[in-house]
Structures are given as structure tokens and as C-alpha cells.
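Hi,

Apologies if this is the wrong queue. I'm a grad student, and the batch job for DUF4352 domain-containing protein from Mesorhizobium calcicola produced an output file that my downstream script rejects. I'm not sure whether the problem is my script or the file. Here is the sequence I used:
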Amino acid sequence: MFKTARSRFQTWITAGAGTIAALFVAGLMGAFGALPAHVPPRLPADAAIDAGRWRVKPVRAYVSRAKVYGVPLKPGQKALVLEADMTNRTAQSDKAYFNVFTPDGLALPDGLPMVALTRDSTLTPELHPGMTERMAYVWPLAGDTAVPASLNFGVTAEIFKPRDNLYGMPGWFNPYRLGTVTLPVAELPVTDWPANGS
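Support response: The file is valid. Your script probably expects a header line. Output copied below for reference.
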């Protein structure tokens, strides 16, 4: 009888402790879940930004309703264009720059942009180490897409690893959103379309 009562008491104590521990863990998880998500910082729109393998400096953003820098548009489309000075910070020529900039809040029918040199309209060129080039990111949009007067562009960076976990080779990995740069967006009249866009 005494052993039965004692075992019941131990069972209640154990169950109570387990319940308290579960409630404590659930409370902690709820508290951490309620914390605000990390918001990437605002980046300067008038200064160079180190984004992993690239150093970038946004120059201007605008909307074009005609072919720009050799990128043709389908009937009824327009293009959002971001021009930026880009420097390859690595030791070899590279063109892994398509994801560096992403406009926020717009439906992008083609996903990745076309990217061209502004000086001669060469599409998707390799950028050589240490050489700064002005590049145009061109995103085709539906003609009726509302583009705000100022737009946030996410900037993606990568992390250099001397040895990756799979092959033990050096490279750039783990893309992440470094921050956001905000630029005014102009709608260029026909006479102001870039000369290389014809």
C-alpha cells in the first residue's frame, strides 16, 4: 500500500516536472518566435558597396519602352533598367553577377535580368579582375506594370570559402541578402533613351 502510494507520488512529480519543462521550452520558443525577423540594412545609394566577389555602386534606375543596350522587348513590354559600376574583386574573370541586384515588389516575367556593358552593349560579358565597368541590368516588364517613383533593390552577396565542404575547393558560396538600396526611378522620354539602345 505504502509502495503504491509512493510510486503514484513519484509518477505525479515526474509528470509535473515534464509538463513544467515542456511549458518552459514552449514559452521560450514562442518568445523567440515573436522576435522581429532580421531586416537587411539600408545601403548607401551614392557609395561603393562590397558585395562579396563584386564591388558595386548603383548609378541610376529608369524605365525604357524601347530596346535598350541591345536587349529587345516584346510588343507591349517595357524594361526596368538599373545601371551600376561593378568591379570584379576576385583573381579571375567572371560573370556570376546576375543575382547581385533584385528589384523588390515587381512581377518579373523573365526572372533573371539581361546584363550588358553600357559602353558597347555587349551582353553578359566576363568582367576582368580589378577593372570597373558600368553595367546595365535590364528586366522586361509587362507594359502596364506600375513602377513606383522610387524602388528598393536587394543586393545579394556571397561568402568566400578557401575549402568547400563537398569538394575541398575554394569558391564563393552561401548567397545572402546583404541589404537594400533605394533609387529614384525615371521614365525616360524617347529622346533620352541610351544611344546604345537602338
